[in-house]
Amino acid sequence: MSDYNVQMIEKYRGNFLREVEANVEEGDWVKMCMQCGVCSGSCPFGPHWEHPPQEIFMLIRANKRDEVLQSDSMWMCTSCYNCIARCPRGLPITHIMHGLATYAKRLGIAPKEQPTAKFAQLFWNNLTKTGRVNELKLGLALYFMNGFGEGVKTALKMKDIGLGMLKTKRMSPMELLGGHKCQDAKGLQAILKKAQEIEDAKIGKSGIGKAGA
Ligand code: SF4
Ligand code: SF4
């Protein structure tokens, strides 16, 4: 268990709602939920999740810290905004879902093999190298994220789409050699390094909390 997680458990012992209010984006809205269930009923994926949004808010108030933060439900949110458009109390549900996922990642207790979390990290690693997403490298990293054998199988399955993109110049093999970058990639990296330092200071530099959740 990470130092930061232990620190937060001690700081907010027995009051997970207060912890969420203080550390999760838009977390102070959770207490406004009246449990009507409209968000869960409107969420296109809610019925397939372990905990749809209304249940997440109920669990937060019931002090079920592990059940919420170790769930992969928040990671499945596609930001479709159906829930926000329909919530009678105007809760920024989408932001809270992403905020909870980010907080769990910062604490080091997000589900390890969660595919969205893995993709988010690959996307972040790719983007921050040059300031531009290298789509070819990102695609390959995505294919091979579950191992070499799986990667080859996926690449073969997708080969017609890949060849079509090459033919129509939607993708260039030259991107493999480095690809395009923003004008001041070093400047961008300096900004990100500073932001990481600020983030580390906030959590008492416990060796976790890399951006990109
Ligand atoms: S729609 Fe809004 S008030 Fe109703 S359960 Fe969802 S978050 Fe709570
Ligand atoms: S924004 Fe996320 S939680 Fe809300 S309805 Fe869409 S998928 Fe569900």
Explained architecture:
With 213 residues, the chain is mostly helical. The protein folds into two domains: 3-111, Fumarate Reductase Iron-sulfur Protein, Chain B, domain 2 (Orthogonal Bundle), CATH 1.10.1060; 115-195, no CATH class. The chain has twelve helices and no strands. The protein has helices spanning 3-11, 16-23, 38-42, 53-61, 65-69, 82-86, 93-107, 115-130, 135-143, 148-157, 159-167, 185-202. It is globular and about 55 Å long. The chain starts with a helix and ends in an 11-residue tail after the last helix. The model is unreliable at 206-213 (pLDDT under 50). It binds iron/sulfur cluster (2 copies). The site of one iron/sulfur cluster has 15 residues, from helix 3 and helix 4.
Structure at a glance:
The protein folds into 2 domains: 3-111, Fumarate Reductase Iron-sulfur Protein, Chain B, domain 2 (Orthogonal Bundle); 115-195, no CATH class. It is built from 12 helices and no strands.
